[in-house]
Write a structure and sequence with these properties.
This protein is α/β, with parallel strands linked by helices. The chain folds into two domains: 134 residues, Aspartate/ornithine carbamoyltransferase (Rossmann fold, 3-Layer(aba) Sandwich), CATH 3.40.50.1370; 157 residues, Aspartate/ornithine carbamoyltransferase (Rossmann fold). Helices cover 43% and strands 14% of the residues. The chain contains twelve helices and nine strands. A five-stranded parallel beta sheet has the order 7-6-5-8-9. Helix 1 crosses helix 12, helix 3 packs across helix 4 and helix 5 packs across helix 6. The structure holds phosphoric acid mono(formamide)ester and norvaline.
Length: 307
């Protein structure tokens, strides 16, 4: 059973994820049946960082479910002038029915969840991006018909996307391989937790410095930007450190013959992915982007349609 909040896929069970995907598929197939699922409910959306997909898909999703969403830039609300996160959580809990937050520090989302009496959804932190990773596994299930026994390879920076994909694999029955350059490995705690989750679920997790090893036989090749939001000052150094780590057609050729390419977007063509791959026949990047809407509507209805 889903907890009050969605902070990390690590907190979910495999059954939670399966139930969510069934609901998301129903909402995608029959959106009109869910037009009043969240009638009269309001979602507050706090953003410390930029967003296209998360902002628009959550707002559109709330409207499609019969509710409404409020965009709150951290620059404009009192958080930006030092009002405590705890007070913000308690105040918003008196007005609205849910909070979605995109923050730098992961602790900010945890603090919001601790003090809010309403559900809090993680819309990306420096550590995790659960809504995106859930959507990616949902998209993978659409492409391949099932997930158990399939393999996802992530190539690039050991960042928030890598972490949430590592957490998602065991909950979906997917083997995960993560390849990074030296010095850009995923977080040690996340890696240890994901290894334990994989062992419990009977899936595998490989963390390596060999992108060829990671990609071999994989059904999904996934990458993300080399410099995430908040790391702009490191951009030039990272471009140097990631030389040779572009996902190319040659790398894709090592994967399973039916493999698809995924990217959470925004993408930097010519850096983490070659344009021919990003815009090529195996790319499903815009299906992923669309599915953010359907999966998040399922998350919203699951968390906010409770007595
Ligand atoms: N993938 C993703 O979260 O995109 P935005 O940064 O545009 O929300
Ligand atoms: N790793 C990227 C993901 C953007 C959706 C970032 O945090 O900027």
């Amino acid at each position: 059973m889903f907890q009050k909040d969605l902070i990390s896929i690590h907190d979910l069970t495999g059954a939670d994820v399966a139930t969510l995907f069934t609901l998301a598929a129903g909402m995608k197939a029959r959106p009109r049946d869910f037009r009043s699922a969240l009638s009269g409910k309001i979602l507050a959306m706090i953003f410390e960082k930029s967003s296209t997909r998360t902002r628009v898909s959550f707002e559109a999703g709330m409207t499609q479910l019969g509710g409404a969403a409020q965009f709150l830039s951290s620059r404009d609300i009192q958080i930006g002038r030092g009002e405590p996160i705890a007070d913000t959580a308690r105040v918003l809990s008196r007005y609205v029915d849910g909070i979605m937050a995109r923050t730098f520090a992961h602790d900010t989302v945890l603090e919001l969840a601790r003090h809010a009496t309403i559900p809090v959804i993680n819309g990306l932190t420096d550590l995790l991006h659960p809504c995106q990773a859930l959507t990616d596994y949902f998209t993978m299930s659409e492409k391949f018909g099932k997930l158990t026994g399939f393999k996802l390879a992530y190539v690039g920076d050991g960042n928030n996307m890598a972490h949430s994909l590592m957490y998602g694999g065991p909950k979906c029955g997917v083997d995960v391989a993560v390849a990074t350059p030296k010095g850009y490995e995923p977080d040690a705690t996340v890696t240890a937790n994901a290894h334990a989750d994989a062992t419990a679920a009977g899936t595998t997790l490989l963390v390596t410095h060999s992108k060829e090893e990671a990609v071999r036989g994989a059904h999904v090749i996934y990458t993300d930007v080399w410099a995430s939001m908040g790391q702009e000052a490191e951009q030039q150094k990272r471009v140097r450190d990631f030389a040779g780590w572009t996902v190319t057609s040659e790398l894709l050729a090592l994967a399973h013959p039916d493999a698809v390419f995924m990217h959470c977007l925004p993408a930097h063509r010519g850096e983490e992915v070659a344009a021919e791959v990003c815009d090529g026949p195996r790319s499903v990047i815009f299906d992923e982007a669309e599915n953010r809407l359907h999966v998040q509507k399922a998350i919203l209805a699951t968390l906010m349609d409770r007595p």
